[in-house]
Amino acid sequence: MFNRRTVLAGGASLAFTLSACGKGSAGGSEDSAKGGTVGIAMPTRSSERWLTDGKSIVEGLKARGYKTKLVYGDDDPKAQVSQVGKLVQQGVDALIIAAIDNKSLNGVLQQAADADIPVISYDRLILGTKNVDYYVSFDNEMVGLIQASYIIKKLGLEDGKGPFNIELFAGSPDDNNTKYFFDGSMTHLQPFLDSRQLVVRSGETELKQITTPRWDGPTAQKRMSSVLTKWYRSERVDAVLSPYDGISRGVLSALKSAGYGSDIKPLPVITGQDAELASVKSIIAGQQSQTVYKDVRLLADAAITMVDDILKDRAPWVDDSTGYKNGVKAVPAVLLQPTSVDKTNYDTLVEDGYFTADELK
Ligand code: GAL
Predict the structure, then answer these.
(1) Which of 49, 247, 277, 336 best tests ligand 1's pocket when mutated (most atoms within 8 Å of CB)?
(2) Which InterPro entries does this chain map to (predicted)?
């Protein structure tokens, strides 16, 4: 049985033994001999990255002898709660969950805890419950920092250039990552807002004014269009902070409809995240400026290794056991490093096998 109280997880050196008699442990049942079954709940099929995450987790677990049950919540928090409930009822040995709404899973995670099913919060931290055992993600604040640094460099802000007009976009309000991305960016942009080298003409600088429910591109497009109509009749926007490629593409559509993308009205510097194929192509075509590349195959690997360790009574490696607080506890976390990709270095994606050269044509 997975025994929550034995999860100390203070670092790689902390060896401990989980109680060795139950599900998934080397206890001799047919299920455990095969490694057991892992339930995987992903948020949506509408974004390419989550398809890669799901596929990579399934393939990696199968390679280690596990069975898998993969479900997608189609961006509906209630649907995800019921999917996770079903996985618990089916008696999975562990759960890997990328939450749609960071708080809606608390009830169903109590059921998981009652059934001694370990839970890994995948990419997005689940808040407000003690029943989340580990967290695997990228350094989310670093993502925001990379996006802000790109804008700072491209506009020459450190050389004193400006003033420039910028508009800010953030992710879904119910995703814990949204705040990390935004804070990571704003720590670096704020000094230039204070010095008026950067001006937000819409005045919308508070997180609650700029979030994009469900990270939805068309929603971002709508907001960008209305900001352009209201505030940029005679002015030009020089940069857009966008936290995610889907939002960047929505913003780009609004900009193009407003006549941006010509010599006299060039597109602004526009950031992104996830290195989605459509956005990488847009970068190559000189439209979106940048994206943050997170190799989610490595994230999948991290989650798989963690599950395998837990179910085989080994102490999972963690990088950070204090920093990721979910309101009830600090969740031991493994954090991978994101990197910036733009027109100058998108080859990395091919070298890593993230895309083939043909796919990028
Ligand atoms: C976040 C994730 C981003 C992006 C976004 C929209 O939680 O960290 O990489 O995928 O969701 O799907």
Answers:
(1) 49
(2) Bact_Solute-Bind_Prot2 (IPR050555), ChvE-like (IPR049784), Peripla_BP_I (IPR028082), SBP_2_dom (IPR025997)
